[in-house]
Structures are given as C-alpha cells and as structure tokens.
Amino acid sequence: MAKTEKDGKSRRELITLGSAFGLMGLAAAGTGGALFKYMFPVVSYGTPQKFLIPLDDLPDVGDELIFDDMKVVLRRQTETEVAAISLVCTHLGCTVNRVETGFQCPCHGSQYDSDGLVVGGPAPKTLPWLEIKNVPGGQIEVDTGTSMPEGTFYAVV
Amino acid sequence: MNELIEMAKEFGTKLYYSFFRHRLDNTGLTKSKIMFSNVLLHIQPVKIHKRSVKFKTTMGLGLITFYLFLILSVTGILLMFHYVPSTAIGPDGLPDAYSRMLNLRSNVFWGGFLRNMHRWAAHGMVAFVALHMLRVYLAGAHRGGREFNWVIGCILGLLTVFLSYTGYLLPWDQLAFWGVKVGTEIAKIAPGGALIRGILLGDTDVGSEALIRFYVLHVAVLPAVMGFLIAVHFFRIRKDGGLAKPADTSKEKQIPDEEFGEVKNNSVFKSARSYKLVEIVKGKEPKVNEEVDQMMFAWPKLIVRELIVLLGVVAFLSLISVLFDAPLEGPADPNHPTNPSKAPWYFLGLQELVSYHGFIGGIVIPGILAAGVMVLPYIEIFFESFTKTYRKNIPGVWFAKERNLENALFIGMYLFMLSLIIIGVYFRGQNWDTIYPWVHEVTGGGH
C-alpha cells in the first residue's frame, strides 16, 4: 500500500514536471520559430537585380564598357550583338578588376581570362554571363541574377 | 566641546556602518567580512591558495581579458553617444556612419582617443583570449572536472571574435564593407548558410539593413550573452575550488607569509578555514589542517594585485591610444574593393586559407579546428577511456611530462595559425600575390 502511494506520488510529480518543462519547451520552440521568421528579410532595400540601359549608351563595336554600380561589363561584338558579364567574383563576392589579361580579384587572388573563364586562384566558377532582353523604348534590360553559358551574346535592335 | 566631538564621532560611526558592514582591523574576521559583504568582492573567495597570486600560475591572462572586456564596454557605451548606424548619404556626401567616424576623430573632444582605445582593446582582447587558452591548456587546467568550463571558455572566445567582426563593420569604411561582404559569402557556402546570411544581412546583399543588424548584435545581443557566460565561467571556477592546482602543493615554493601582512587571529579555531565550517564541501573530509598553511586571505593582497593589473592595462592602452590612431579606410565603396583587400590580422589566417579554396578553407578547416578545440578535453577523455591509458592528471602544472604529446600538438596548432597570419599580413600584396616584405612595401589591411 505504502509502495503504490509512493508510486502515485512520483507519477504525479513526473506529470507536473513533464508538463511544466514541456509547456516551457513548446513555448520556447514557438517563440524561436516566430523569431526566425521575424528576422528573415521580406523586403529588399538594396540595389535592384535588373537594370535598364538605353541603346545609345552601348559601347562601340568591338569595345566594352563597365557599369560600376551594377558590377557588369557590357561587351559589343557586332552592331547588333551584345553580352553582359558579371564582375562579381564567383569565389567570395568581391568586385573583380579589369586587367590586360582578363579579370583579377583583389581579395583572394582569383584570375579570369577576358571571357571570364578561371585561369588561376580559388574561384570555383566562370564569371556569370548575364541575360539581356530588349525592352520597349530603345532600351535593354540586364538581369544580374542570371547565369548563362560563356559566350552568350544577345541580339539587340 | 568634548561632548560635541563625541556626538560627531557617534554620527560618523553610524554613517560608516550604514555603508560598510565590517570593521577595519587585521583580524581574520574583518578580512573575511570585507570580501563577503561587498557585492563586487564576494565574487572571489575569502581565502585563496597562495599559488594563485604567483605570476607564473596564470600570468594574469584571463584577468587581463576580462579587464579588456570591461574597458570595451565602457568605451563602447561612450562611443554610442556619437554614433549613428546609418548608410544614408549626408550633406557632406558621405554615409552617416562614416562621417560620424570623421567627427569622432577630428571634432569630438576625446573622440579619437576613445575610438582608438576601443579598437586597440578589441585587438588586445582577441590576442589575450588566445594566450589565456594556451595557458590553460599547457597547464592542464582544462581537466579534472573543468571540462565544461573549457567549452564555455571556447564559446566566449568565439563570441570575442564575432564581436570584433560585428564591430569593425560599424565605421562603414572599405575594410568594413568588404570584410562583411567576404565573411557573409563564406557563410553562404556553408550548408544552410544562405538562411544564416539572410538573417545576418536582412537583405540580399550587404547594405543598410546589414549595418543595423550588426549594430544591434554588437551593442546589445552579443555583449549580453557574453556577460552572462563570463558569469558562468567565473562561477564554475569558484565551484571547482578556485584555480586548478595539483593535489599536493606542500613542496611548492610559496611567497613567504611576511609578504601578506599580519593577520590577528581572534578565532577559537586557531588554524581553521572558518568559512568552510558553514559550507558543505565535496571531498574526503574537511581540510582543516593539511592545506591551511598554503591559504591566504584574498583581502588585501589579491585585490591589490588585481587592481595593479587593471591600472597597468589601462595605462598601457592609454599610451597605445595616444601614440597610434585606429585605422580608418575610405568610405565604403560597394563597387571597388581596395587592392589588396585585407581583414584585420586575426582574420588574415582565415583569409589566407580561403584564398586556396572557399569551402575547404572557409568552412571545413576552421569548423573542424573550432569544434575540435571546443571538445578537446572530451576527446582526451575518450582516448584515455578506450585505450585504458589513464594518465596521471596534474592540473595547474606547466608542461607536465605526462602531457608532452598533447601540449606539442596544441602548440603546433597555434604555430600553424600564427604562420598563416604572418603570411597573410606580410607576404600578400596586390591581387593577393606573394610578396616579400623586405622587397615590397606591405599595404592594406585593418591591422
């Protein structure tokens, strides 16, 4: 009799402790999840991913032009063929410099040739070639979030 | 007249005893009361082992680290009065955060000095955390029930580094911008890193949101966590019986008794550690007589020594802060990294590793090192249990012969990190090319 009484007591204690800590744990988990969602960005205040260039601003044929703010170099092969190469290093996101041999990253020494192919350093991938679209009003739209195979030129009008 | 003096004396006595709850004499009772009736002093025990105050026991490394944390808290709060975490371009054409740095440096009275002090203390804290950890390991003080405190210490070390990292973003100069850019790109290549990066930056790229988040982390979240963990770290040292020491210290040479001043013994227990009578202490029996010659009152010798260390740290930091200005590069330019773009010295080892391979150098090797060092005492226990080589553990003794292998490996790891840092600081030039400091001038870097 005494034994069952003791068992009952410890069971009651276990239930009390379990529910107290369990509820606390649940509350903590819920709060943690909510906090995670709270901290996660929903709106971007940064630089837009796509940008427009008037056709008049394109480089001359056989030449190229660097758009600093967008970290893109625009290269014009023929009168109607244009390509955009990202200047964001594929290693850790520094902006690469245009040098005679191609592109070079000042942060960790990645080297690319003038088509963005890796020739040295820790960079894992070719510099992304970006998608270009014709948009009305004599402009083209470059999407810095894309990655096309190297040598992808687009026809512009 | 005499009556008046008597009344003034009585009033004075009442005033004194309303502030303090102890007399001022040489009895053990007073020396004890001074320690445990003061909220700041009671963190330390009334009586400590004599070897605790010897220079070679700790070299004061942990204490100096703690003092640097205090100095950083004070100077940091003062800097907050003049700082705005904003990237908005002001009338001078500079981001607000950056122009506040210029303001601190050139206009605010004491502004440059406090900023220098904050920066140099931060660098010092990273260095002293590393030295403190080395001391603890080489003296075997991470074992014998103190394994978990070692883990907490490692977390404190990581927090120190993370505080430095969030701190050097705040000036919004080139170093800040590209440091955070590269750091968060490293986070991105870790598994699940894109989520962490999003949470840290609050945006798709480093910008105004990142500055706010790093600011809040730097001035509120991380110091609060750090303060709490420091309390746990100290508490556990107390509960583990003070600094790690060998079981038998009777043969060690101690500082002679005369050095500690006279103690008038008015206790009925002539040789007892009286506070132990009211504490239940783990162990075979109350150690009344065996260790008692090697114990000393913490007041005043230990407290005075600690104050001298504090004065030394403050004096040295002040001197450095007057002589050397904290680095400030040009305002953040998201389009053009400086060339070379170097992190502060304590990250250059990591930057050097990353320059070989982003994932292996940035995630795998640092991850293994950090996690490995954190659980090091448990790895030791694991090997000892499974190979049944129970080594004689001699805590608190430098370079114990039984631990030669472990110590050599640990020193080797430190030398590895140090050589990477030296390569990063002195042997890397433009485009991270190898240079020789005796040929080229070393440039760049947050020092």
Automatic annotation (TrEMBL), chain A:
<dbReference type="InterPro" id="IPR014349">
    <property type="entry name" value="Rieske_Fe-S_prot"/>
</dbReference>
<feature type="domain" description="Rieske">
    <location>
        <begin position="50"/>
        <end position="141"/>
    </location>
</feature>
<keyword id="KW-0001">2Fe-2S</keyword>
<keyword id="KW-0408">Iron</keyword>
<dbReference type="GO" id="GO:0051537">
    <property type="term" value="F:2 iron, 2 sulfur cluster binding"/>
</dbReference>
<keyword id="KW-0411">Iron-sulfur</keyword>
<dbReference type="InterPro" id="IPR017941">
    <property type="entry name" value="Rieske_2Fe-2S"/>
</dbReference>
<dbReference type="Pfam" id="PF00355">
    <property type="entry name" value="Rieske"/>
</dbReference>
<dbReference type="GO" id="GO:0046872">
    <property type="term" value="F:metal ion binding"/>
</dbReference>
<keyword id="KW-0479">Metal-binding</keyword>
<keyword id="KW-1015">Disulfide bond</keyword>
<dbReference type="InterPro" id="IPR005805">
    <property type="entry name" value="Rieske_Fe-S_prot_C"/>
</dbReference>
<protein>
    <submittedName>
        <fullName>Cytochrome b6-f complex iron-sulfur subunit 1</fullName>
    </submittedName>
</protein>
<dbReference type="InterPro" id="IPR036922">
    <property type="entry name" value="Rieske_2Fe-2S_sf"/>
</dbReference>
<dbReference type="GO" id="GO:0016020">
    <property type="term" value="C:membrane"/>
</dbReference>
TrEMBL record, chain B:
<dbReference type="InterPro" id="IPR027387">
    <property type="entry name" value="Cytb/b6-like_sf"/>
</dbReference>
<feature type="transmembrane region" description="Helical">
    <location>
        <begin position="120"/>
        <end position="138"/>
    </location>
</feature>
<keyword id="KW-0812">Transmembrane</keyword>
<dbReference type="GO" id="GO:0016491">
    <property type="term" value="F:oxidoreductase activity"/>
</dbReference>
<dbReference type="GO" id="GO:0009055">
    <property type="term" value="F:electron transfer activity"/>
</dbReference>
<feature type="transmembrane region" description="Helical">
    <location>
        <begin position="356"/>
        <end position="383"/>
    </location>
</feature>
<feature type="transmembrane region" description="Helical">
    <location>
        <begin position="408"/>
        <end position="427"/>
    </location>
</feature>
<dbReference type="InterPro" id="IPR036150">
    <property type="entry name" value="Cyt_b/b6_C_sf"/>
</dbReference>
<feature type="transmembrane region" description="Helical">
    <location>
        <begin position="60"/>
        <end position="84"/>
    </location>
</feature>
<dbReference type="InterPro" id="IPR005797">
    <property type="entry name" value="Cyt_b/b6_N"/>
</dbReference>
<feature type="transmembrane region" description="Helical">
    <location>
        <begin position="150"/>
        <end position="170"/>
    </location>
</feature>
<dbReference type="GO" id="GO:0016020">
    <property type="term" value="C:membrane"/>
</dbReference>
<feature type="transmembrane region" description="Helical">
    <location>
        <begin position="302"/>
        <end position="324"/>
    </location>
</feature>
<feature type="domain" description="Cytochrome b/b6 N-terminal region profile">
    <location>
        <begin position="16"/>
        <end position="246"/>
    </location>
</feature>
<dbReference type="GO" id="GO:0022904">
    <property type="term" value="P:respiratory electron transport chain"/>
</dbReference>
<feature type="transmembrane region" description="Helical">
    <location>
        <begin position="215"/>
        <end position="235"/>
    </location>
</feature>
<keyword id="KW-0472">Membrane</keyword>
<protein>
    <submittedName>
        <fullName>Cytochrome b6</fullName>
    </submittedName>
</protein>
<dbReference type="InterPro" id="IPR016174">
    <property type="entry name" value="Di-haem_cyt_TM"/>
</dbReference>
<dbReference type="Pfam" id="PF13631">
    <property type="entry name" value="Cytochrom_B_N_2"/>
</dbReference>
<keyword id="KW-1133">Transmembrane helix</keyword>
